[in-house]
Amino acid sequence: MALWFEQALLPEGWRSGVRLILKGRSIDGIVHGVAPEPEDERHGPAFAGLPNVHSHAFQRAMAGLTERAGQGKDSFWTWREAMYRFVDRLDPEGLHAIAALAYAEMLEGGFTSVGEFHYLHHDPSGAPYADPAAMAQAIIQAAHDTGIALTLLPVFYAHANFGGASPTPGQRRFLHSPDSFARLMEALTPLDATLGVAPHSLRAVTPEELASITGLAPHGPIHIHIAEQIPEVEACLAWSGQRPVDWLMTHAPVDDRWCLVHATHVTDSELTAIAKCGATVGLCPITEANLGDGLFPARAFLAQGGRIGIGTDSNVEINAAAELRLLEYGQRLIHKGRNLLASGPDQSTGASLTRAAQQGAQSLGHPPAALAKGARADIVTLRRDHPAIAARCGDSLLDSWIFARAPIDTVWCAGVKRVSAGLHHARPVIEARYVKLLKALLA
């Protein structure tokens, strides 16, 4: 199969008249500066799809349901209580319906892989399902239905706060002992997904449990929520005398397999330590804004050679360009300047953001996303007749995608076209199933 693009972003830069030969899941050959051949499928500007390094798929169904002011100060913590009440209603069938819509929207929004931080394990009473992997299999089936590449990150969750505090009733569906979690990992090993592991947070695991759980993924990705909220930092200091990132760096062998999700509230020395060890910081700007988390010092981190990935977290909005746009705008508001995440003088901010986000694939157990021979054929094109990209070429196309909202046209994942004219091919079926579920859940 051959695809021809007016322009495409290759590892060496933008090229015109690019012809890609696909074979199976991969790119088998690339030539540029050529005219299309009669059998070629022809498209506008193309670039490699982005990895989504952090998703809680089920929270897609909560979007718009938590925006009513409470009696006291609303915060991440009051939102979390609403989330606990919502999950009481979900079973594997419902999780599959929600995740399928979320994953279809990710593909429509330019993401071609996802790291699913999966902690909804048990039935509504907190008892394991007869098949302890039933909820995880619903996630895997949703990924299969939509075609997105899945890195499954089963979450170990045992405690409500630092020091091994007893869990709350609202957390009952998430909980495991190290032994039961090891059995879950064993059940998941033969399933069709890249498998990592996710100690939920330093709040939710003891030091002994952290060492045990990370040992179950000797080669796979390791993801953890960390330093998302100021009260979390204060509680960690009270427990250990160290801030969360500082404690983790001191007590765990953090390396380039790790993804530190959010890491919002960090010191300069913690920032340097993360960059030095090669871990990815998983940033979710839309969710971090929605929950009032704060702003990660991305400008300083990238200046030190730090690696970032972009995630959609609560999936209140699913759009790769929107995440990147808010990441840059947040830095502009902090520093009162413009083009703050561009990689250097006269460099495109949109291209710098896109290339940085593509590097986040490392944290999902994949090589960096690229249109290169031998790479997985994950390809995104922009709508070539849209005014937002009129008369543009090269990096200005990515600037227009992110900042002028140029729409996505087509998306291939692992060599299969999943999105045409901006819509997932299975959207009608997926959407109808989701709407039916939501009407039942919210009745």
From TrEMBL:
Keywords assigned by UniProt, alphabetized: Hydrolase, Metal-binding, Zinc
Keyword Phosphoprotein: no
GO molecular function, one term: metal ion binding
Cofactor(s) the protein needs: Zn(2+)
A Pfam family this chain is assigned to: Amidohydro_1
Residue span, Amidohydrolase-related domain: 47-415
Record's keyword annotation contains Lipoprotein: no
Domain Formimidoylglutamate deiminase N-terminal: 6-44
Any one of the GO CC terms: cytosol
PANTHER family: AMIDOHYDROLASE-RELATED DOMAIN-CONTAINING PROTEIN, GUANINE DEAMINASE
Identification of the protein by name: N-formimino-L-glutamate deiminase
